[in-house]
């Protein structure tokens, strides 16, 4: 790339974008975390985040540009995959709830709203015990113990409370969630 125009990496339909960035830099304005596309050597487009700064000489004259490019292709794919999964969860006829190990509800889909009568706003941030009748409150510690060990609870038949106070019979399948945190 040394000796070649940076436009070699910029898809033709984005050349104007690069020209606008350079105009901004000539005014001394830095560009932070600008997400766009660039060309890989093999010709495919990759998602990137750009941080671009003007480079000054001792007299504060702009003499160049410093550009940091981060490949965010995997990040963008994870974002799309996450949105797809959320759409599946939200439109599922099955009740899908998530909670943390303190029994605090962290998600509540539309089917949960329909079946229990509580909205996501009613439930997220509150204890799952809100829908468990007083009598089987002893179930919750047993369920949590299994989940902490990494075990699933399959087809556990019990009762839960609706918002209107009525008990309903349910069959629960509860799985531990193993989320790997990216560093």
Question: Can you describe this structure in just a few lines?
Answer:
The chain has 183 residues and is an alpha+beta fold.
Q: Which terms summarize this structure?
A:
alpha+beta; Beta-Lactamase; 2 domains; 3-stranded antiparallel sheet; two-stranded antiparallel sheet; 7 strands; 28% helix
What does this structure look like?
This protein is an alpha+beta fold. The protein has two domains: 6-76, PAS domain (Beta-Lactamase, 2-Layer Sandwich); 92-174, 2-Layer Sandwich (Beta-Lactamase), CATH 3.30.450.20. Helix content is 28%, strand content 30%. The chain has helices at residues 15-26, 73-91, 110-116, 120-123, 139-148; strands at 31-39, 45-56, 62-71, 97-99, 105-108, 153-161, 167-174. The radius of gyration is 26 Å and the shape is elongated. The mean pLDDT is 88.
- Number of structurally distinct domains: 2
Main sheet specs = 3 strands, antiparallel
**Assigned CATH class of the largest domain:** Alpha Beta
Question: Roughly how much helix do the residues carry, as a percent range?
Answer: 25-40%
Multimerization status: single chain
- CATH topology (fold) name of the largest domain: Beta-Lactamase
What is the typical, i.e. mean, pLDDT? 88
**Which class do the helix and strand fractions yield?**
alpha+beta
Please state the second-level CATH architecture of the largest domain: 2-Layer Sandwich
**Topology pattern, helix = H, strand = E:** HEEEHEEHHHEE
- Rg over CA atoms: 26 Å
CATH superfamily of the largest domain: PAS domain
**Residue runs with pLDDT of under 50 for 5 or more positions:** none
Distance between the termini: 30 Å
| Percent strand | 25-35%
> What is the count of β-strands?
7
Number of helical stretches of at least 4 residues = 5
Strand order of the largest sheet: 1-2-3
